[in-house]
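User: Quick one: structure for sequence A, then sequence B.

Assistant: Sequence A:
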Amino acid sequence: MPRYFFHVTDGYSARDDEGTELPDIYTAQSQAIRTSGELLRDMGGEFWNGTEWKLEVADEHAQILLTLRFSAEEHPALTDPSRDPGSA
């Protein structure tokens, strides 16, 4: 069974040196989505600072097969409704 490695970069790099045996690339895709969701949830407010975050899936030869990229920014809420071009 092939081994896939899930490397995370979110301002610093966290390399997966152990990897996970999975039956195929499609299962690795599903695992990457699931892992990304869990990591983003656990980051909480840290995720909203605009830093690009990514998860790369590599094979046993260190070849990158998949990349998921995320970033998020908080923007100040519009506090003066008279400045809203949609109101009037």
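Sequence B:
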Amino acid sequence: MTKLASSILEMIRMMIIMMIVTAVLGSIEHQILKSWIPWKELYFLFLFAGNVLWFLVLYRNRLQFSGWYRSAATQHKLSRNTTRTIMALGAILIAAPAMITWFIEIGVIHWS
């Protein structure tokens, strides 16, 4: 298989897996957060961004090694510090709706 064809197949595979993972995680997180806080539609952006970051770590550390495209330049795991940083940013983004609601309730920020 040519490099172009295998890279296109790998991109399609990556997008499909990302859509499934972010949809499932986002739905679970939405149900949990909706039971705790008043839900605003903007909060989906935080969940989506956090889940995309988590998927990036999952893909770069595990899934890229089982795909169609092979290249010596891309076959490296993320470093431990990079993985921790991205996972922490993802967690902060996923927790952001609860934090924003808490800041609104204590009066630190005002949301219309």
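The radius of gyration is 17 Å. The mean pLDDT is 88.

User: Thanks, that's what I needed.
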